[in-house]
Amino acid sequence: MLRDNDQPNGNPLREGIVTRTVPDPCTVVIFGATGDLTHRKLIPALYNIAADGELPPDLTVVGLARRPKSDDEFRQDLVEAAKKHSRQTVRDDVWSNFAGAVFYHQSEFDNAEGYKSLGKRLEKIEQERATGGNRLFYLAVAPDQFQTILQNLTAAGLNKPREDGWSRVIVEKPFGTDLASAQKLNAIVREAFPEEHTYRIDHFLGKETAQNIMVLRFANAIFEPLWDSRYIDHVQITAAETLGVEGRAGFYEKAGALRDMVQNHLLQLLCLVSMEPPTDLRADSIRDEKVKIVRSLRRFSAEAVAENVVRAQYTAGAISGKKVGGYREAENVAANSKTETFVALRLQIDNWRWADVPIYMRVGKRLPKSGTEISVHFKKAPSVLFNKESEAMAQNVLVIRIQPDEGISLRMQAKMPGTSLRIEPVKMDFHYGTSFGKASPEAYERLLLDSMAGDATLFARADEVEQAWEFIDRIQAAWREAEAAPVHEYPAGSWGPEAADELLAREGRAWRRL
Predict the structure, then answer these.
(1) Torsion-angle region of 412 (φ positive above 0: left; ψ -120 to 50: alpha; else: beta)
(2) Are 23 and 199 in contact (CB under 8 A)?
(3) What is d(CA 490, CA 324) in angstroms, rounded to the nearest whole number?
(4) Taking Cα atoms as reference points, which of 235, 188, 167, 170 lies closest to residue 377?
(5) pLDDT tens digits for range 105-131
(6) 203 an active-site residue?
(7) 27-31 and 135-139 as β-strands: parallel, antiparallel, unpaired?
(8) Among 39, 105, 197, 265, which one carries the catalytic annotation?
């Protein structure tokens, strides 16, 4: 839950509105406890929350996996992972206190007896540690294990909340591979947990700047009156990576950039930057507005896909002066693969606010720089006063940097010092790290806290996921039907194929360089 964070004398900790997420005591049961996600993200996140003093003192972690391990062996594995991946230095005193609440339970995911013994162990731990019977099940496993785990949780009665407690589940992406699989997955989850107790996690929404988009728009009167087609020329959303597939080729061959990134991460950012003001800050009020945006996206015909979507694959090139191979050279990639490692789209939101404002998205691997940002490009000012300068004057651009250097900047026009009238763009810049004097928490820290507190604002709802897949499926279908549809190429270390530049150039626009 969110509570005002006031000092005893009633004064807030800092000027303005201050709220904080207050998690309930609970037992976090992690399926896939020996896996990469647990070691790189979940345990470091829980440790950092503990180090910041925001973890409930009675919180307990039970890791479940197939490998036989003792509690002490599991704890030793986790401390090594925390030292490697934590954003804060692991302190012995904090870790010792945290590790005392960590346990291990060995079981196969399809072993019914393992779930019965898990239930008995949870009851014992809950009595000893006074967790209130609250249970948070985290499925840090491949999607093909979801049904097995959920059905066994249901058979053992572990999905039902205990008296005065709650029982919730966190489901990791991908949420299906198309509309049909997403609907099937949602039905499977719904049989075990109601929608209000289901948390579909998208780590992009846990990033500070993503959370700040609504505050930027709705808490600042200087922006919201300009946030429509009368003043905005277009919007760009870019997610760039210098990395290649890095051992994920088996997964990536089946997914591609469109399904791996656009369907979830980029569409989520689009919803936040374009949604209408919610009636209040309750999770469903916000998610209602996000769903409206996805429903308002103009659906593509096969002809429109060819005109508005560019897909491409990286070839051999150089990143930071180091030679790298092409995508088809990676292990487990077909020699004639048509899987896209880059995709650019021109979208339209068919509603009153965004009519005729194009939204450009691009995502790609092996690009020159890593970063994710949203840039809002405003229309140029009338040129009647500065006729000679009008052609040279740049647009005002508001840039929301999601990662890695989280912050917000605004480009505006200013006169250069001197006797002549020379107009040049200048930048007002806000950085989270320097402005607030502390590092932003990792995305998983915020999302874990919210799930413990029962706040689903930053989690995807079933209808939102399905609407997003319905939009993406039309593009995938057009690609399948048009065997001759081009898969452009771009050398590693470039900003993508020329066709992506032409997507904007035909309307007199250009991609913003990160």
Answers:
(1) beta
(2) no
(3) 13
(4) 235
(5) 999 999 999 999 999 999 998 888 888
(6) no
(7) parallel
(8) 265
* Digit-coded pLDDT (tens) for 267-287: 999 999 999 999 988 889 999
Contact by Cβ (8 Å): 42, 140: yes
> Is the pLDDT score of 18 beyond 50?
no
Q: Are 422 and 412 in contact (CB under 8 A)?
A: no
Distances from the Cα of 462 to the Cα of 181, 183, 207, 465, angstroms: 12, 8, 21, 5
Percent of the chain with pLDDT over 70: 91
Angle (CA) 255 257 263, round 5°: 85
What are the C-alpha distances in Å from 487 to residues 237, 370, 467, 492, 500?
A: 21, 23, 26, 15, 12
Strands (E), 164-282: 167-172, 198-201, 232-240
CB neighbour burial string for 169-186, b if at least 16 within 10 angstroms, e if fewer: bbbbbbbbbbbeebbebb
C-beta separation of 463 from 284 below 8 A: no
Q: In angstroms, rounded to a whole number, what is the distance separating the alpha carbons of residues 419 and 58?
A: 68
Cα separation, 432 vs 437, whole angstroms = 8
CB 201 within 8 A of CB 172: yes
How many helices and strands, by DSSP H and E, does the chain display?
A: 16, 19
Picking from 264, 258, 259, 358, the residue whose alpha carbon sits closest to that of residue 312 is: 258
3-class secondary structure, 32: coil
pLDDT of 193 reads 94
Rounded-to-integer distance, Cα 254 and Cα 236, Å? 27
Coil, strand or helix at 236: strand
Give the contacts of 170 (CB within 8 A, at least 6 positions apart): 136, 137, 138, 139, 199, 200, 201, 451
Q: What is the pTM of this model?
A: 0.87
| 174 cis-preceded (ω within 30 degrees of 0) | yes
Q: Among 251-265, 371-385, 432-446, where is mean pLDDT lowest?
A: 432-446
* Sole residue written with tokens 């229309």: 379
